[in-house]
Write a structure and sequence with these properties.
Layout (H helix, E strand, L loop, with lengths): L1 E9 L2 E6 L2 E9 L1 H10 L4 E6 H6 L5 H10 L3 E5 L5 H10 L3 E4 L6 H11 L4 E8 L2 E4 L4 E6 H10 L4 E6 L11 H11 L2 E5 L5 H9 L4 E4 L1 H5 L4 H8 L2
Parallel strand pairs: 1-4, 1-12, 4-5, 5-6, 6-7, 7-10, 10-11, 11-12
Antiparallel strand pairs: 1-2, 2-3, 7-8, 8-9
Helix pairs in contact: 1-3, 6-7
Length: 237
């Protein structure tokens, strides 16, 4: 299992939201400094989210992203507002290892084109849910699309990896939604990365037990609830 420390970007700074609420923001400072810290603690892959991009579809935090790429030699993935093929081209050319499609992935033809052009190792789909229904546009719009049905459609067009987030858990330190995550793993046999709400080493252990490909750690490592260095040494394959 891979452990992905997260850096959420908002107005050029590293932040965390509470349950995806843009009005409930905690700031943590310079994103490149945070990235260096995570690398020093043993991280080999960092999960980046452009929160402003997720909301409006524009690259609002490109300067901060470039600063991380230029100053920290570490693998990076980015999600948030990536809705055009030329955006994927630009981000991968900057040096990102893979991009995460969210709202745009509802257009299966778009996902298919992206995979054909760049390969399934470069294209990941984030499935963000509330009550197991897919949410889009920075989590502001909850659809009636069932997460499992959607994941199976993605699998059929060549997607290999999905990131599953239960919005109601994100930023809460209430524990990840093990039942829903397991439902996706068992129902699709995809590489599923768990996200949202991890609060303890027990959450990481449970995620590994049910067969998660990885887990994203956010507020838990910023608050000190989880020691990232120890978690990587203990659970990462």
């Amino acid at each position: 299992m891979k452990i992905y420390p997260a850096i959420d970007l908002h107005n050029g700074k590293a932040v965390r939201l509470y349950k995806g609420d843009y009005d409930k923001v905690t700031e943590y400072g310079n994103p490149a400094d945070i990235a260096k810290k995570w690398k020093e603690m043993g991280a080999s892959f960092i999960h980046l989210v452009d929160l402003d991009g997720a909301k409006n579809g524009n690259f609002e935090n490109l300067k901060a992203i470039k600063e991380i790429i230029d100053n920290v030699d570490i693998d990076l993935e980015l999600g948030g507002g990536i809705r055009k093929l030329n955006q994927i081209d630009e981000l991968l050319s900057l040096g990102l290892n893979r991009v995460i499609l969210g709202s745009s992935a509802l257009n299966l033809d778009f996902v298919n084109e992206a995979i054909k052009k760049h390969g399934s190792d470069k294209i990941v789909v984030g499935i963000d849910c509330k009550n197991f229904k897919v949410a889009t546009h920075g989590w502001l719009n909850v659809t009636e699309i069932d997460a499992l049905d959607f994941a199976l459609k993605l699998k059929n067009i060549g997607v290999k990896t999905i990131i599953f987030t239960d919005i109601s858990k994100d930023g809460t330190l209430e524990g990840i939604n093990i039942n829903q995550t397991k439902k996706l793993i068992d129902g699709t046999d995809l590489c599923v990365v768990a996200s949202g709400g991890a609060k303890s080493l027990e959450d990481i252990s449970k995620a590994k037990e049910i067969g998660c490909h990885g887990i994203i750690l956010g507020k838990s490592i910023y608050s000190g609830a989880i020691d990232l260095k120890y978690a990587i040494e203990e659970f990462e394959d």
